[in-house]
Structure formats: structure tokens, C-alpha cells
Amino acid sequence: MLDPARLSIHQVTLLQQCSTPQFVDALMRNGVPCTSVWREKVREYGVEQTARLLADNGVALSGYCWGGLVTSPDRSEAAKARDEVRRALDEAAAVKAPCLVFVAGGVAPRDKNIADARARALDGVAELIPHARSVGVKIALEPLHPMTCATRSVLSTVKLANAWCDSLSAEDIVGIAVDTYAVWWDPDIEAEIARAGKRICSFHVSDWLVDTQDLRFDRGMMGDGVIDLPALRRWVEAAGYDGYVEVEIFSQRNWWQRDPDEVIGVIKDRMQTAV
Ligand code: ZN
After folding, report:
1. Entry pTM
2. Residue 137 half-sphere exposure toward CB, CA atoms < 13 A
3. Average pLDDT, whole number, for the chain?
4. Residues with CB under 5 A from ligand 1 (ion)
């Protein structure tokens, strides 16, 4: 049984049904204490306005999603990308999010060199550390599924995230976001979660549908797929994580088509039976 006080529902779960005020209303109506906000939506509604709306309604934040894509081999492009992450860190601080979910970036067709892309991503994180410290927002390295390696993230495993954390030596400000959808398949996952320990600063749940039809926008509701979510939760908790359990479901064909109260109702049930 998950303590309902630990439930966070990521804004993206109701991305298409709700404006930001409608989303916050839906959380309040259903007694959901926490969210992680989606950067595009925040910028659309306004950073200050979003911060005020969340604070006025007493909604806690488990994260700010997302910033990154710092792997460009072009120096000025890479510098621009890092500036954009600094802006995202500022916004995260403004809405009082504890961490920014960091998506490394993909492989440039120009050099087709994944090792170099990984090295550049790690250098990029190192360059962002002083700014993250100055605004008090953690950089949450989020490994993504390897199928997104070309476009979104050359950081594909918790093992690699641990290696990056080892080399950065910045445990106060760089952590790891464990997204079950991205890492459930990994044969090393239990051991690498244990190794990550207190680095884990964010934990995301959804499910992998057997007949999944889209790599980004067809996530399943917890319990509808093949991920052993209770085991993953046990492992992150054994590693020392006791924070929010964040529901993050991108679902073009199903959950984005439904009524917000229905979606939240199903989430609350599944948090008790499938997570
Ligand atoms: Zn995630």
C-alpha cells in the first residue's frame, strides 16, 4: 500500500485535457498533494503565474520536466543548449521544484559518434553544476529507453548514470531520476538501483504495454503492462528513496482521451493495487 501522501501526478498525464489551471483544479478536487510540471505548459501559462497558482493551492512539486539536449558537436549550439537548461533551472526554482529532469540529448548525424555524444553530455552537466547550485535545484539525470538514443538521450541506463555521478563528484546537486518505463528491461537494474542509493531523487511510474504503438506517447497505466512496479518500488525504497511516486503517462490513444477525474480515479486505485 502506498501512502496517498506520496502520490504525485505529472502534468503530462493530463496534457491534452487540461490547461494548467484546470489541471491544478483536478488535483485539488481529487486530493492529490503533488505534481511535476511540464515546461511547455508552464511557459504557456507563465512561470510566475504557475508558481502562484501552485503555491496558492498548496500543491507540492516533485520535479520540473525537462531540460537538456546538450550533446551537439557544434560549440555555439552546445553553449546555447546549456543556456536553455540554465533558464529551465531558474524556472524550476521559481515554481519551487526540487529538481530538473535532465534529458541528455541524442547522437548527431554529423558525427555518428555515440561515445563522443556521451562525453559531451557529461561535460555539459559538469558545466551546469554551478548554476544548479546557485538556484538550489538538483539536476536529475534521467536515463531513457535506448530506443530514444538517436534523438533524446544517449544516457540509457542507471549504470551509466551512476558512472556519470561517480565522475562528477557532486552528490549534493546531481541525482538520478529512475523512470520505470525507461529502465525496467535492464538486467542490471536491481544492482544499479542499490548502487545509486541516495542519488535517487525522483521515481516515475507507468507501464509498458505489450502491444505498445509509439515509443514516447503510448505509455500504459500502472497494472496494464509488463513492468514489475512493486519490485522496482521495493528496490528504490531499499536504496533509501522515500519521496514521491510520480505517475507519468504519455498516452495519445487512451488516457489523453479521457475525463481528468476518471484518469485520476484509476491512478489512485492502481497506486494501491499495482505499485
Ligand atoms: Zn520520467
Report:
1. 0.97
2. 30
3. 97
4. 179, 204, 248
